[in-house]
C-alpha cells in the first residue's frame, strides 16, 4: 500500500505493515532514520488497527527515490534544464561522459579540478539506492579532457523505468558530451574468462528488449534521435582497438577480452538454466545495466565505449558448492581490487582521444 507523509513524500508498506525497500537493512549511505509517519489505511495482519499511526523507516534517499520513480517521463525541456544546471554550476562543458559500474566509483576520483554534484541536489534527478553507487556527478578534467562521471547509475530493479535509468545519458548529450564510457561489474559466462578480467563490449543481447521493454518506449522526440535507430556498430571499433593496444602496453592483454554482454532485469542473479541459455545465445558476460544506456546514447548519436569487469564466474553446471553463488559483496571486493587497472585503461584511452582530436 502507499501513503504520504507530512512532506508529501510517498511511503509504502506491504501487507504485513513492513516498509518496502531494503527490509530494514542499511542503504549505501547508511543513514537510515525515521523519516515518516503515516496513517495506515487498513487493518494489517499484525493487528495494527485501521487509522493507527505507524512509523515508516525509509531513508531520505529512498523516499526521494520513490517520489522520483512516480514521476512521468522526462521531456526534452526538463533534461535541458538539468544540463544547464550542470554546465552553469561547473562552468565546464564536458566532452566525455563516464558511468561508473558497481564498486568502480574510483574512476571519478581521478578527475581533477572536480565540481561534485550530489544527485539529490540536482533538480529532477533520481537518486542511487544500491551499495557501491555513491550518487554523485563529478565534472572536471581527466587527461586534458573535460569529463562528467556518474558515481552511481540507475538500475531497472531499483524500480525506475528504463527511460529514467538512462535519462542521465541525455543530460550528458545536452551538456555537450560526444563519447559515452560505460563500465559495469558482470558475471563471466564464457568459460575462458577469469575473475578480474576486463571484457570490452563489442555487442549486446538485450533481454529486457526481448521482453518488450526499451528506454525509447513512448513518443519519440526527434531532437534526440530517430524513431527506429539501428544498433549494429553500436560499440565504436576504433575505441575497442585503441583499448586493446593500451591493454598490451599495460601488460594485461591476457586478461582482456572482446565479447558480448547481456543485461537482465535483476535483482536476482541467474539460475543455471538461464546461464546455459545465455551462453547458447553467444553471451560472454551478464549484468543488470549498461544496455539501456548504450541504446539511449546511440539514439542521440554518441560514440560508445563500454567494458565489463568480470567480478565472478557464473556456474553453468549444477553443483552444491556455495562458491558457485554470486553475491554483491564479492562483486564489490573484486571491483575494489581491480579499480586501479580500470582507471588506468580509462585514463589512457581518454588521453588518446584527446591526442587525436
Ligand atoms: O552493472 P553494475 O551497475 O556495475 O552492477 C552490477 O552489479 C550488481 C550486482 O552485483 C548489479 O547492479 C549489476 O548490474
Ligand atoms: N546479472 C548479473 N549481474 C552481475 N553483476 C555482477 N555479477 C553479476 C552476475 O553474475 N549476474
TrEMBL record:
Residues 95-351 form the Nucleoside phosphorylase domain. It is an enzyme of class 2 (transferase). It catalyses: 2'-deoxyguanosine + phosphate = 2-deoxy-alpha-D-ribose 1-phosphate + guanine; guanosine + phosphate = alpha-D-ribose 1-phosphate + guanine; inosine + phosphate = alpha-D-ribose 1-phosphate + hypoxanthine; 2'-deoxyinosine + phosphate = 2-deoxy-alpha-D-ribose 1-phosphate + hypoxanthine. It comes from the Eukaryota. Residues 1-33 are annotated as: Disordered. GO terms for biological process: imaginal disc fusion, thorax closure; nucleoside metabolic process. One of its GO terms (molecular function) is purine-nucleoside phosphorylase activity. Transmembrane segments: none annotated. Its EC number is 2.4.2.1. Pathway: Purine metabolism; purine nucleoside salvage. GO terms for cellular component: cytoplasm. Keywords: Glycosyltransferase, Transferase. Residues 13-31 have a biased composition (Low complexity). Belongs to the PNP/MTAP phosphorylase family. This is Purine nucleoside phosphorylase.
Amino acid at each position: 500500500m502507499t501513503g504520504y507523509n507530512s512532506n508529501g513524500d510517498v511511503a509504502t508498506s506491504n501487507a504485513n505493515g513492513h516498509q518496502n525497500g531494503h527490509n530494514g537493512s542499511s542503504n549505501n549511505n547508511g543513514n537510515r532514520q525515521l523519516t515518516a509517519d503515516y496513517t495506515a489505511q487498513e487493518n494489517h495482519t499484525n493487528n495494527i488497527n485501521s487509522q493507527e499511526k505507524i512509523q515508516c523507516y525509509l531513508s531520505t534517499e529512498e523516499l526521494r527515490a520513490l517520489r522520483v520513480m512516480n514521476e512521468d517521463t522526462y521531456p526534452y525541456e526538463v533534461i535541458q534544464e538539468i544540463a544547464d544546471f550542470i554546465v552553469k554550476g561547473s562552468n565546464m562543458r564536458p566532452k566525455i561522459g563516464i558511468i561508473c559500474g558497481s564498486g568502480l566509483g574510483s574512476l571519478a576520483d581521478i578527475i581533477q579540478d572536480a565540481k561534485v554534484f550530489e544527485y539529490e541536489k540536482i533538480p529532477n534527478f533520481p537518486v542511487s539506492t544500491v551499495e557501491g553507487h555513491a550518487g554523485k556527478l563529478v565534472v572536471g578534467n581527466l587527461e586534458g579532457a573535460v569529463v562528467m562521471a556518474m558515481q552511481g547509475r540507475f538500475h531497472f530493479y531499483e524500480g525506475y523505468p528504463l527511460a529514467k535509468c538512462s535519462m542521465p545519458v541525455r543530460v550528458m548529450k545536452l551538456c555537450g558530451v560526444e563519447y559515452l564510457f560505460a563500465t559495469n561489474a558482470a558475471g563471466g559466462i564464457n568459460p575462458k574468462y577469469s575473475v578480474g578480467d576486463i571484457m570490452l563490449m563489442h555487442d549486446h543481447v538485450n533481454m529486457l528488449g526481448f521482453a518488450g521493454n526499451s528506454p525509447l518506449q513512448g513518443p519519440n522526440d526527434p531532437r534526440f534521435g530517430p524513431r527506429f535507430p539501428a544498433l549494429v556498430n553500436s560499440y565504436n571499433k576504433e575505441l575497442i582497438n585503441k583499448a586493446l593496444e593500451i591493454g598490451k602496453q599495460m601488460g594485461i592483454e591476457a586478461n582482456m577480452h572482446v565479447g558480448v554482454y547481456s543485461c537482465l532485469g535483476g535483482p536476482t542473479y541467474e539460475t543455471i538454466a538461464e546461464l546455459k541459455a545465455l551462453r547458447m545465445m553467444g553471451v560472454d558476460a551478464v549484468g543488470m545495466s549498461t544496455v539501456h544506456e548504450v541504446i539511449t546514447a546511440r539514439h542521440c548519436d554518441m560514440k560508445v565505449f563500454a567494458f565489463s569487469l568480470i567480478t565472478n564466474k557464473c556456474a553453468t553446471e549444477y553443483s552444491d558448492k556455495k562458491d558457485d553463488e554470486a553475491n554483491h559483496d564479492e562483486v564489490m571486493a573484486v571491483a575494489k581490487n581491480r579499480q586501479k587497472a580500470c582507471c588506468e585503461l580509462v585514463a589512457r584511452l581518454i588521453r588518446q582521444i584527446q591526442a587525436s582530436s
